[in-house]
Amino acid sequence: MAKTVVVVGTQWGDEGKGKVIDFLATQADVVVRGQGGNNAGHTLVVDGKKFALRLIPSGILNSNTINVIGNGIVFDPKGFFEEIEMLESNGISTKNIKISDRAHIVFPYHKELDGLAEEARGDNKIGTTKKGIGPCYMDKTERSGIRVCDLMDKEIFAKKLKLQVDAKNKLVTGVYGKEAMFDFDEIYNEFIVYAEKMRPYVEDTTVIVYDAIKANKKVLFEGAQGTLLDLDLGTYPFVTSSHPTSGGFAVGAGVGPNMIKDVVGIVKAYTTRVGEGPFVTELFDETGDRIRTQGHEFGTVTGRARRCGWFDAVIVKYAARVNGLTSISFMLLDVLTGFDKIKICTAYKMGDKIVNNFPASLEDLAKCEPVYEELDGWHEDITKVEKFEDLPENAKKYIARIEELIGVNVDLVSVGPNRTQTIIRKNIFA
């Protein structure tokens, strides 16, 4: 029987998905990216060496694993080949990468427009990575985007690019009051070179994924960002431009939803957020600074300091519901070592009202205050613990309480950054 596993972030991203995906990828035959682009940032640590991946699936470190960049991805060729160069310079083979011929392409004008739009928002900035992701998805939904299959045909590509360059220059001059900044010949010549370099990697990836599942292979769907950054289900408008929830993979990888069996939620032992928007458990004191320092909470892609706060069970319960979580991987537990007391937000208080479900309205969310439950912390070093039973009692109580609140079992516990610093309570791919 086929084993298909989706890995999703349950908070605002940066939960530690890279480590879990890397761990599971050692068992997977196929690893699939299905949404976002190189705005993702997954850090893998193997034998003490760090690899920061943004676009290429995390199964790339395993020579026998097929790595699929699915149709739901917005594909930046420049960023892709930079990653290829980094991997190959470290002796890692990239021959098993497959790029969907249906994926949309990120062009220089997308990146420029991303920055201009963010600048125009003024005080209402949404915290974009300025990688061109949003504008590329806008072209996709507007039905004017350029796909990988278009790039493979010079005549079709030239025709579509000319229309886009003209349209984007009109947008720059007419809306943003800038001089025309995009040159057709320059972009065409750059991307025609990419086209030939990409050609060996390009396939109909929906066939690859479908055939792998039908052949009872182990298929891992690699999520990026987090549930609260989902375009529909996140803290809109402070969200990404795609669907980093489990349902997004049915579309983004081109498979039927009934072909996805298990959904693993990556849960950070506390809560972090990058960018703007309400954050109920955010800490502005020494505790918040301490979590940030101990957790090295700075963005893989942007380098931005992350906002930090106590664990928010309201968020994770919401993520468990909308993703259909079947398992939790609990990350960065070691960061909380040394705290006398640890808090869990079990509900929100909005005026005289207790709120148990995550609100859609950001105005309502901004009015919410956390309702905390306090637990005793632990001071023992847990970074070398290999069995759950050997964790400090208070650490086990903390996990048990979170399981109780969320209603999903914690099957994996991370006690350090390395692949080996992982406690396995249940083999997800078994």
Short description:
The protein is of the alpha/beta class. Helices cover 33% and strands 21% of the residues.
Question: What do these coordinates show?
Answer:
With 430 residues, the protein is an alpha/beta fold. The chain folds into three domains: 3-100 and 202-262, Adenylosuccinate Synthetase, Chain A, domain 1 (3-Layer(aba) Sandwich), CATH 3.40.440; 104-198, Adenylosuccinate Synthetase, subunit A, domain 2 (Orthogonal Bundle), CATH 1.10.300; 267-424, Adenylosuccinate Synthetase, Chain A, domain 3. Helix content is 33%, strand content 21%. The chain contains 13 helices and 20 strands. It has a ten-stranded mixed sheet with strand order 9-7-5-2-10-1-11-15-19-20, with helices on both faces. A hairpin with a 2-residue loop joins strand 16 (341-350) and strand 17. The chain is globular, with a radius of gyration of 22 Å. The model has no long low-confidence stretch (mean pLDDT 93).
State Rg: 22 Å
Biggest sheet, spatial arrangement of strands: 9-7-5-2-10-1-11-15-19-20
Q: What about the largest sheet? A: 10 strands, mixed
**For this structure, what is the CATH class of the largest domain?**
Alpha Beta
State which percent range the strand residues make up.
Answer: 15-25%
- Name of the CATH superfamily of the largest domain: Adenylosuccinate Synthetase, subunit A, domain 1
Count of discrete alpha- or pi-helical segments spanning 4 or more residues: 13
In the CATH hierarchy, the architecture of the largest domain is 3-Layer(aba) Sandwich
